[in-house]
Amino acid sequence: MRLSVVVPVKNEAGNIAGLLAEIEAACAPLEPFEVIYVDDGSTDATPGLLAEAARARPWLRVLRHGHSGGQSAAVRSGVAAARAPVIATLDGDGQNDPAFIPALFAALEQGGPGAGLAQGQRVGRKDGRLKTLQSRIANGVRGRILRDATRDTGCGLKVFRREVYRALPAFDALHRFMPALVAREGFAVVHRDVVDRPRFTGQSNYGLFDRLWVGLLDLAGVWWLIRRKRPAPAVTEVGR
After folding, report:
1. Is 190:118 a contact under the CB 8 Å cutoff?
2. pTM score, two decimals?
3. What is the DSSP letter of 201?
4. With contact defined as beta carbons under 8 Å apart, do 126 and 196 qualify?
5. What sign does the CA torsion over 34, 39, 40, 46 have?
6. Tell me, what's the pLDDT at 221?
7. Quick check: 117 and 160 in contact, CB under 8 A?
8. DSSP-derived secondary structure for 110-178
9. What is the pLDDT of residue 97?
10. DSSP for 27-59?
């Protein structure tokens, strides 16, 4: 298994079929791959559509949360179940184009073992004015405090090494701070521009409020974690 693609979804019934077809086409050059959809407590037709899709696609696996735990929790569940050493993530609403996954995969590979994350950065944002403004403010504040050299950490298109992710602390909104936390573990972060597009159907199922006010608490916590990081000592076993 070369690649596991993790897709968190909540009430995205209208976007399942189209996005699955795009993921399959985009990842064909990276075979063997698997796709793990994590249904974060959907209350629409999403569970049934995913079950039906999985019957015809041996590379598709479906996990389901008993209740909604949030986007970061869904990503963590998918990574925990993944079988490949490299993980790709993208949002389940169709705004992230899977066609960019091979380029991000290649960027991570070109970075060598020292690269832990290939982070997509959206251009041509298709969000509404309020959401775009909130993202710009949040990214600006985060960048000045954490100095993570990343223009857009909220982009769901990411490719990273599974073991690097497993070393990161688990908390809500982790996906918004991955570049800073990956760098905290001593790994490089590479960036690639990706073209944003409108969601296929429906509306966002994860709130905007945390983008600013709740996010400030997370930002303070990540800043503290970075300042408290100490180099891990080399360990050798003493022979008898």
Report:
1. yes
2. 0.84
3. S
4. yes
5. positive
6. 79
7. yes
8. HT-TTEEEEEEEEES--S-HHHHHHHHHHHHHHHHHH----S-TT-S-EEEEHHHHHTSPP-TTGGGSH
9. 96
10. HGGG-SEEEEEEE-S--SSHHHHHHHHHHH-TT
Q: What is the rounded CA–CA span in Å between residue 47 and residue 57?
A: 15
Structure tokens given for 49: 């559509």
Single-letter amino acid code for the residue at 193: D
Q: What is the pLDDT of residue 135?
A: 65
Q: In which order are the strands placed within the sheet that holds 158-161?
A: 60-64, 33-39, 3-9, 86-89, 158-161, 115-123, 188-195
Beta pairing partners, 15: none
d(CA 6, CA 182): 18
**Residues of the chain where predicted confidence (pLDDT) is lower than 70:** 125-144, 202-215
Q: Whole-angstrom Cα distance, residue 68 to residue 239?
A: 51
Angstrom distance (rounded) from CA 182 to CA 205: 27
CB-neighbour burial class of residue 151 (10 A; exposed 0-12, middle 13-18, buried 19+): middle
Instruction: Count Cβ atoms below 10 Å from residue 230 Cβ, excluding itself.
Output: 5
